[in-house]
């Protein structure tokens, strides 16, 4: 591949002309993108199964088409193929593949470069890493102009300011000098969108543009995309979440295993889904689903009642088995917790500010809040992994945070923890069996059971754990890296259950999962809770998930609990303005 | 409005500088102490060394006179404190063997060694960047070749490489002088000898981080904007790839100075390294201590420069 042309591209004049006004696009004449029978594969041509197999769609100017599918369905490959960036070892075939009305099949690399950014813009997930962290965002935005126009530096500066103002970034002059790490999540996503629309491309591809964002920021970004759409940009929105795309998509295409299984107007697909895959995805959305209702109707087998892994440890399965005469009904209590952190510049930040809550036996307390609200710090305080500056945590009616770790250790088996990033919570060199055996053996050491007979008993309990979380025994020899996201989270739930806990603390346990996988994991947690009498402290930024799983809910803002109460009451009649704002931003399908 | 906001950063910067200076003074004191006692641990009588070494016939009177002159008849602690006092006033003492003041002697040698080290560092960076960039573009074969070259280069000992370069360029081709003559031609082989192993080392680090940068989402964004392969590397990836190599350059400079001992000796090039080697051989304590102190100062300065370069290359560090 040669690099003979970088700047001063021919045809740049027409681009600047088109940039004068968004309405000036040749609307109605040519679709922003048209794809017929797109086939994409990796490796030797016609060798392996193609990743995309006969995908067809088009996006008109001013229209939004959403492509929805689970991870691995081929969504991102579709996006990249439209930019000629499918990959070095990928092959792309289509009956038609055209951008802004002109054919882009068999373009050379240099020809592709002239198209990218001009005929099509790309916005990807998490702008923290999608904008160069070492460069000011203004420079990143100006790059499109530098590559495709002959504008001088001053004119580029003006255009960058315009682009930033179009995406609604306040104080654009200041913002353009900042780097992605100095901007908030929503601001950087806006900056990334500004970089993609700097040249007013007729097509904007947004690949999971809101997945890493808080719910209120997500709503703002979706509104921004809707504004761009009204101004004439064609938008190809790619997501795993039907509820999210429902907010702005005109049409929806459901992608499964490299094929579009259903395509049609958005309300039709959302309210009268024809294909089973679509139905599963809609059923998986937790918003407004009452507690206990299964989110995943396809796999409705109950967890086996014979929870053999419980043998040998004090089971947490029924309340009466506690080694106390009167088992308290409050299993976990936080009283006036305060935690301060020192910022790098020496100032202090109140991460958690007089937080109190009670978790009652057999129920779920949901803590909801946006990033930085103090949810995770609260979880760490509850687990006594962080020492509170004030206040205390009590477990099963006994002092927990206030006593030395040596005394806490006796209570630790009653607490299990499940984290967001299951992968990094495993030692990558250990197999699933080793992970679970370690967890089981930890429990055995505490109960003083050692010796040769323990090995066979441990093995039995490992198998019991696997069964309880619905994983086949064949996975025992696998390492965490070779598991899917849902399988990993199941293993980490099994690990948390190994000591036979009564309390499970789940910190964003499903937020890195696709909606359908999320549904399966939520169903599993619900079953485990009912069968084992578990009490759950469930932390999430996702109100839909919290609404579905919680009996009680606490809303956190800037380290404080601003509203708390029974889930049904809080969601039906929110009192605090912040709760009202959060609920207003939740994407839901209007039935 | 910026005036108000800058006061705090300036105060913070002053604190950082003071802490750094304190740290540097501590390091220099430790270096002076360790060298003082390390040289005392070498068996033999320093007074004999002053009078021409153990082989020379010296009268007990002469030895006693020398001991009194250099304070060698004092207890070790007194000698140590006396030397520290002299060092603080900038007096590095008199060489036993050369009968010259140490400070001017070493400063005269410093320029040549510094030139050698700085040039070698520069050449190593260029070689490493070139190799890393090339091998990340050319597919699997270039990758393997680049990686192999780097490993071999990093493993080459200076004395072997120097000999091989002399045989190739001086004996067979006759292009360059085998000993370091004044002028540019005399510098080429010594600089290459020092630069090639370092380039292999830096290149390995750069190529790893270059690969990471090239696979990162911001590079995908740049490509989606129409950036060329060259542009992606030049505008984005090289900077990310350089960060770990920059932070290692302070250390690399230290290794260059120790490499200079070997290289200056082989190429018969005057410099700090060769002076140090000679001084150790004849137990010339003041020269050894002085040379080691000067190297330590250079090392500290280089670490400061590295930090500064890192802050320029990585704006995220400036916020702290």
Write up this protein:
The complex is a heterodimer of chains A (591) and B (320). Helix content of chain A is 34%, strand content 22%. In chain A, the strands form four sheets. In chain A, strands 7-8-9-3-10-11 form a six-stranded mixed beta sheet, sandwiched between helices. Chain A has a six-stranded mixed beta sheet with strand order 17-18-19-14-20-21, sandwiched between helices. In chain A, strands 1, 2, 4, 5 and 6 form a five-stranded antiparallel beta sheet that branches. In chain A, helix 8 runs parallel beside helix 9, helix 9 crosses helix 21 (577-585) and helix 17 (485-497) packs parallel to helix 18 (515-532). Chain B has 320 residues and is an all-alpha fold. Chain B has helices spanning 2-41, 46-50, 60-70, 76-88, 102-137, 139-155, 158-172, 184-214, 217-224, 229-266, 272-281, 285-313. In chain B, helix 5 (102-137) packs across helix 8 and helix 5 packs antiparallel against helix 10. Residues 1-6 of chain B have low confidence and may be disordered.
Helicity range of chain A:
25-40%
How many β-strand runs of chain A? 21
What is the approximate shape of chain B?
Answer: flat
Helix-strand category of chain A: alpha/beta
- State the end-to-end distance of chain B: 21 Å
Strand-residue proportion of chain A: 15-25%
Mean pLDDT of chain A: 82
Helix count of chain B equals 12
Taking Cα atoms only, what radius of gyration of chain A do you get, to the nearest Å? 26 Å
Domain ABC transporter (chain A): 33-282, 332-583
Keywords (chain A): ATP-binding, Nucleotide-binding, Transport
Region (Disordered) (chain A): 1-21
Family (chain A): Belongs to the ABC transporter superfamily.
